[in-house]
Automatic annotation (TrEMBL):
<comment type="subunit">
    <text>Homodimer.</text>
</comment>
<dbReference type="Pfam" id="PF00534">
    <property type="entry name" value="Glycos_transf_1"/>
</dbReference>
<keyword id="KW-0119">Carbohydrate metabolism</keyword>
<keyword id="KW-0808">Transferase</keyword>
<dbReference type="InterPro" id="IPR052078">
    <property type="entry name" value="Trehalose_Metab_GTase"/>
</dbReference>
<feature type="domain" description="Glycosyl transferase family 1">
    <location>
        <begin position="274"/>
        <end position="450"/>
    </location>
</feature>
<dbReference type="GO" id="GO:0006006">
    <property type="term" value="P:glucose metabolic process"/>
</dbReference>
<dbReference type="Pfam" id="PF21269">
    <property type="entry name" value="TreT_GT1"/>
</dbReference>
<comment type="similarity">
    <text>Belongs to the glycosyltransferase group 1 family. Glycosyltransferase 4 subfamily.</text>
</comment>
<keyword id="KW-0313">Glucose metabolism</keyword>
<feature type="domain" description="Trehalose synthase N-terminal">
    <location>
        <begin position="47"/>
        <end position="198"/>
    </location>
</feature>
<dbReference type="GO" id="GO:0016757">
    <property type="term" value="F:glycosyltransferase activity"/>
</dbReference>
<dbReference type="InterPro" id="IPR001296">
    <property type="entry name" value="Glyco_trans_1"/>
</dbReference>
<protein>
    <submittedName>
        <fullName>Glycosyl transferase family 1</fullName>
    </submittedName>
</protein>
<keyword id="KW-0328">Glycosyltransferase</keyword>
<dbReference type="InterPro" id="IPR049438">
    <property type="entry name" value="TreT_GT1"/>
</dbReference>
Length: 478
């Protein structure tokens, strides 16, 4: 019997966000909080996802739920469980909604039967917990099929899709057809971009971009010497130890210390602290194109062999993300590609699996890596929304991203970063990275503008306000 489990989230005082806002903004957020608390009195605000760690949903939910609880709303988070076959199907759906065939496997009646069976098992437990009038936000394809059972029990169901493609094709249509029975039960649907909304959801769709919490461990201020100390302990930098300790502040205010090392594939010792790093931090997913990043950087090195830089391709330990069965194979493919490169290239590329046993320690390592990077890249072939780019922009890092999906909303070419028009064009990618490495003054200017852009558009207060309005609209559809 498959049962969902609850991830317990501590309440976060909403007052922590006051420092992010001017007086008018803070007063508006408090007014939304008061109205939401009254609206949700006696009801629970459930979020249901497919994994508790790894990926953007697991990144955002703890912070948003914590602040909702700080408002006085009974917000809770459940994670469904599934079989390997189920997660293979949902990964296939993930690729389809991006317009990609993935491994080319079927999405037919047999796959739907497996998908439905797993969700029926999970729904039995959910129907004990979820009461009439409760609000349930289902996140992404893995959970969409829970909609009919929860709606029949009297819950107000919202489906939140974090992925999509600007120009639908046959694969996108195949994905929507598979999900259609579940989506019919959703009163509202939420997308990261208007272009992702399918016709069957057009009359009940809201656009709510993702966000980061600038107070989270991954985004908290960090001195350069602390970042270097963390990367040295993790094994990503080499050299004499800094006088600083590899420490960070946990969510509960307790001081934490990074002690776990990463699994690293490279030739020789790690880079010196003064060597510029080009960094991509992403799940091991073919749509993130780690292979293309490696080959693009190799082309950069061939064009500019005297350039002082090293590439770091980093992602989570592949056994740590339950709903991503492609991760191990994608990593193995990148390792095989790395081994095919010349020694000259292999000496300047390291592949890194970051430890995930302690999620806040992992967040501190990512924070250090992004802050230390000379350039942060996200060369995705498709991307619903790039949280890692948002994080890097908040840290005033110059960024290079593909002109696909939500990355086009985040990065304005030449203003707060650089966009590669064709994500498959390695020459264009290499030139963009080279231009930032060779013009540090321009890189600093783009980074400053990026920081300001994120502050006004992609932080927690805006996201919480959007969800307050969602609840208002949901009740209006009552």
């Amino acid at each position: 019997m498959l049962k969902p489990f609850e991830v317990h989230v501590q309440a976060e005082p909403l007052a922590r966000l006051e420092q992010e806002l001017d007086g008018a903004g803070w007063n508006a957020l408090r007014a939304h909080a008061q109205a939401t608390r009254a609206r949700m009195a006696g009801r629970t605000f459930w979020n249901i996802s497919s994994t508790a760690r790894g990926g953007g949903v697991a990144e955002m939910l703890p912070r948003l739920i914590g602040y909702a609880r700080g408002m006085g709303v009974d917000a809770r988070w459940l994670v469904l469980t599934g079989t390997p076959g189920f997660f293979h199907i949902t990964k296939r759906l993930h690729h389809a909604l991006h317009g990609s065939p993935g491994d080319g496997s079927a999405l037919g009646a047999a796959e739907h039967a497996c998908y439905d069976e797993v969700l029926r098992d999970n729904a039995e437990e959910l129907l004990v917990l979820v009461k009439p009038g409760d609000v349930v936000v289902l996140h992404d394809p893995q959970t969409a099929g829970l909609g009919p059972a929860l709606a029949s029990a009297g819950a107000r169901v919202v489906w939140r899709c974090h992925v999509g493609r600007d120009t639908p094709n046959a694969e996108v249509e195949r994905g929507w057809a598979f999900l259609a029975p579940g989506l019919a039960a959703a009163r509202l649907t939420v997308f990261s971009r208007a272009a992702y909304v399918p016709p069957q959801c057009a009359d009940r769709a809201l656009v709510i971009p993702p966000s980061i919490d600038i107070l989270a461990v991954k985004n908290q201020p960090m001195a350069p010497e602390v970042a270097r100390a963390i990367l040295a302990v993790t094994g990503l930098l080499h050299g004499p130890p800094d006088t600083a300790a590899p420490v960070f502040t946990r969510t509960d205010g307790v001081m934490g210390c990074v002690s776990r090392g990463a699994d690293v594939i490279r030739l020789g010792a790690g880079p010196a602290a003064d060597l510029p790093l080009v960094v991509q931090v992403s799940r091991w997913d073919p749509l993130k194109d780690p292979a293309g990043v490696l080959l693009g950087f190799a082309q950069l090195l061939r064009q500019s062999p005297q350039l002082r830089a090293q590439l770091v391709l980093a992602g989570p330990a592949v056994t740590s993300v339950a709903d991503d069965p492609d991760a191990a194979q994608t990593l193995q493919d990148v390792i095989a590609l790395w081994r095919q490169q010349s020694r000259f290239v292999r000496q300047r590329v390291q592949l890194v699996c970051l430890p995930m046993a302690d999620s806040e320690e992992n967040a501190a390592i990512v924070n250090a890596l992004q802050r230390h990077a000379a350039v942060v890249v996200q060369k995705s072939l498709q991307e619903g929304f790039g949280l890692t780019i948002t994080e890097a922009m908040w840290k005033a890092r110059p960024v290079v991203a593909s002109a696909v999906g939500g990355l086009q909303d985040q990065v304005i070419h030449g203003e707060n970063g650089l966009l590669v028009r064709d994500p498959g064009d390695r020459k264009e990618f290499a030139e963009a990275v080279r231009s930032l490495l060779e013009d540090p003054e321009r890189a600093v200017l783009l980074g400053r503008r990026a920081h300001d852009f994120v502050r006004t558009r992609y932080t927690a207060p805006r996201h919480l306000t959007d969800f307050a309005r969602l609840l208002e609209r949901l009740d209006a559809r009552g």
